[in-house]
Queue: 4 jobs
Job 1
Amino acid sequence: MNFSTDDRGRLALGGIHDSTITQFSLDAAAKRIGIQCLSDAGIITDFAATSLYTLNISALWEGSVISDIFVWDFTDVPDDYLFDPEIGWRHLFEGRIDDRNQLLAQIERYKERLPKAKLVSIGCSYGGNISFLCQELRIEQTHPVSSSQAS
């Protein structure tokens, strides 16, 4: 499905905020990640990223609740998300690159190699964050069938 973001990169899609992560899969050999979440209204949202280049998962536990999801074209990440410890570049390289200049240099190296990549950051309420760099991101939603639609 097509999706859009607001001017800050926040995913503009209903059924995301306060949804629970119900499935998570990582296939490092195939460079894929899959995440499924379920909203209180019964909306199921599936995220599938392919050509995964780098990934950071911190403080994630079963039943994590999503607060926000950001999706940026690699070259359009706002400067505000360069050094935010929970979202964006800083989180992606958490524990690997602490120096500001080294972080900026690494971003430039990736921009040269992967000009069409996407940076995705998922922030969870009450802790837990996922950030990854991928070539393609597919998002699908399944809405519950109401009793009036089923008849």
Job 2
Amino acid sequence: MAQPYVREPTATTSGAEGAHIEDTGHWLLWITGAVAAALGAVAFLLWGTRSGPYLLDLIAAICA
């Protein structure tokens, strides 16, 4: 049975701290991707049900 890959500690990441930082980065990427996908789905639903100008007016109202 093969041994799992273990990253060797470096000057910037050592031991458990380095693994924790690396895991946090992966979770942040997944969460960011999920939020972006959800916003994209909502935008497509609004575009299909109320048309484009409604979506653009909504964005303009939020930004103002």
Job 3
Amino acid sequence: MDILLLLFFFIGCFLVTFLERKSLIPFLKWFFILPFCFILANRSLKVPDTEAYYEYFYDSDYTSIDDFSHSSFEIGFQFFSKVIKVIVGDNFVFYLAIITLLNLLIIDFATKRISYLFEIEQKNSGLQDCFYGKNRFLSNSYFSIIPLTLYVAYFGIYTNAIVLRVGIAISLLVLIVSYALKERKSVLDIFKIVGLFVLGYFFHATMLLGIFVVLIMFINKSFPQKRYLWICFIIGFVYFSNLSTLLSISVFSFITSLNELTVLASKMSSYEGNVVQEVGGISNKFVFYWVMAFVLIFYSSSSKIYFKLLNVYLVGLAIFALFRSVILIERVTDYFLTFSFIIFYIFLITQKPHKFWLFFIPIVIVQLVFVLRITN
């Protein structure tokens, strides 16, 4: 991954964000989407898992449907890859670019829907006073560069550069949540939710974890600030005291014993080596999410959407703490913590300009450091 190119890209993102906060500029998002697709599509084969996708791409035959069993990739992803290959031929760079483009468009569409629901909720509840000054969000109901920058910094580089199948599944889950957050869901909305789940499952079996995310959304429960703080303190105590090793061994031994019954369990047990190990160090990623949880809890909001997303965020954090000793537990928590970029987006757009930049720039930089340690 070209770090220098990414650095210039994010400097550009900050500049374009400044313009976006001031005025509505048509098609501004394409000044973000196209350069990012170019950067990701031209990455080195040394980036983890890229070589495996490279070999699969050139080994697959888009004219045949008899080779699906030759790869361990999910059938939905294989079919999607064949369709792309019909369009781009043997151009691997265009193949990667189209996958990245698809994810960004899904995320952009989903966050636009969630933003609209948030705006309607604020206006219907008379809560516009949570916005400081003449906030353009109230008249436009959407920024594009801010949520896309947060998405890319948090998960977008990782999901579009390494775990491509999971990345598409997670994008579809964000889209599902944009329908699940509606106060009054039509029959068509329910069909869309179910259909997108099925589609996501055919891209990666871990999409089943998204069912728990949607169930949390349906619970529609918020707690007093004091209770949220206690929950956060308990999560921190469990993680930092490292009480979870025995629980991790027991639960994952049970899960992997079911690999004859479920594809999901098979996926979780297919990684090489021991599933559970003694962990002596502390995850900087967990520390960041845990500290920022306090910021999000102290943020005074009466939004049901905000608290639904916060509940998902804290469940992901709790899973992270409880299964600290599980190798690749982040493959599970990603389905919950992905929504951190949306909740931070909601948090940021209501802030005064100086406070917006005080949080926005450090958040993006810290997340980039975490991601680039993996991709380089």
Job 4
Amino acid sequence: MRSASVPAWPFTVVVLNLVYVGAVKLTKAFFGGANTRALEDEHPHAALLAQARHLQVDEAAARTATTMAVTAAGVATRSAASVLLAEDLGRSLRAAAALYLLWTVSTWFSAKTLIGLSLIVLFTIPAAYDQNREIVDKQLAIASEMVDQQLGNIKSRAIGIRADIMAKFDGSAAAATKKEE
């Protein structure tokens, strides 16, 4: 099995371009009889090189892009912390289910296959949704209602269990206090 390594295409592009530029210069020197100073001025990529010399990064655009990246990173960090700390039970359960599903599927398929399938799904789902918008919205409303109902049941049970535990704790604390007196 081949291990992961740096792709060979950048090396190939650089070497092929080097061969091309060298071949053009040597051909012009051999058949044109030009001096070496004229050959430097007649570079095959002279127009591209002239444009590249004038390339600059706009400082304001760079600051805006950096600010946007930092803001996005902050939002992502706060969202991840919210999910990890279970601030919203429903959101944390959905994240856990999604991660479990991703982990399970990744044991069946390679990463390349999953990325390929993800790209296909990414571009086909919007078209399928547009064609079946009414049906999908109706089914999503039913599923959302069922999930909200189940989360409500779970929350009410958790509140009941917490109340029972607190009552037992308060009762045992009161009994311990009476014994000490």
